[in-house]
Amino acid sequence: MSLACASSAPMESPVAVKVKKIKTTKPREVMLGICGGVGPAAGLLLHQLILQNTDSAGEDQGHLNVCHFSRSEDMTDRTEYLVYAASSSADATDSDSECGSCCSEVSCDSVKEVENPACGMARTFAMMHAAATAGRARLVVGVPCNTFHAQPIWDEFIRRTGHASDVDHVHMLAETVAYVEKKLPSCKRVGLMSTTGTRNSRVYHDLLEPRGYTVVEVNTGATQQELHESIYNREWGVKSTAPSVSARCEANFHRYAKQLQEQGAEVIILGCTEIPFVFAGKTHFVGILLIDPMVALARAMIREADPSRLKPVDSTKKVPNMYSVVPLSVSKASSAPLVPLKYVGATTATTPSSKIPRANCS
Question: Between 20 and 30 A from 167 (CA), which of 75, 107, 300, 337?
Answer without folding.
Answer: 75
